[in-house]
Amino acid sequence: MALAHAKSGDLVNINDTTDALASNTSATLVRDEHIEIFRLVLSAGTDMQEHSAAGAMTVLCLRGEVDFSCHDRTQTLLPGDLIYLNNAIPHALYCRQDAALLITLFLKRK
User: Fold this and answer.
1) How far apart are CA 85 and CA 59, in angstroms?
2) Which domain of life is it from (predicted)?
3) pTM score, two decimals?
4) What tens digit of pLDDT does each residue of 17-48 get?
5) Which of 15, 24, 29, 47 is most buried, judging by how many CB atoms fall within 10 Å of its CB?
6) 88 vs 14, which has greater pLDDT?
7) pLDDT of residue 71
8) What is the pLDDT of residue 12?
9) Is 38 within 8 Å of 26 (Cβ atoms)?
10) Cα(44)–Cα(48) distance, integer angstroms
C-alpha cells in the first residue's frame, strides 16, 4: 500500500520523532509538483557519501547530531539548526548521534 502524503491544508506533526527513531523509519510527508518534504531518520554511524538533490533544499535538524559537508567545509547540525543549499549542490553527511532531519526539496519538475 502506498504511503499517503499530506495534501494542501493537512496538519503534519514533525516533532514526534521518538517512534521514527526507534523504528529507524524515514517518511515522505509532502510530495507535490514542485516541493517534497521528508523526515530522514539516521542511526549513529551512518555515512552518506557525496550526492546532490534535484533542486534547492533546506535541512533542519530535529534531533541528534550530524556532520554536514558542503562547499568544502563540514558543519555540525544540532537540534534547531537549519542549512540551505542552492540547486544541486553536492553534499555529504555523517551521523554522530541517532538523528532525525526534516528535508525540504524545491524541485523543478516539468
Assistant:
1) 8
2) Bacteria
3) 0.86
4) 666 556 667 888 888 889 999 999 999 999 99
5) 29
6) 88
7) 96
8) 79
9) yes
10) 12
- What are the grid coordinates assigned to 26, written together? 524515514
* DSSP secondary structure letters along 46-109: -EEEEE--SEEEEEEEEEEEEEEEETTEEEEE-TT-EEEE-TT--EEEEEEEEEEEEEEEEE--
Neighbouring residues of 73: CB distance < 8 A, sequence distance ≥ 6 = none
CA distances from 23 to 17, 71, 85 (A): 10, 32, 29
pLDDT at 66: 98
Neighbour-count burial of 92, counting CB atoms closer than 10 A to its CB (0-12 exposed, 13-18 middle, 19+ buried): middle
Give the three cell numbers for residue 49: 557519501
Q: Look up cell 541517532; give the residue.
A: 98
d(CA 94, CA 87): 21
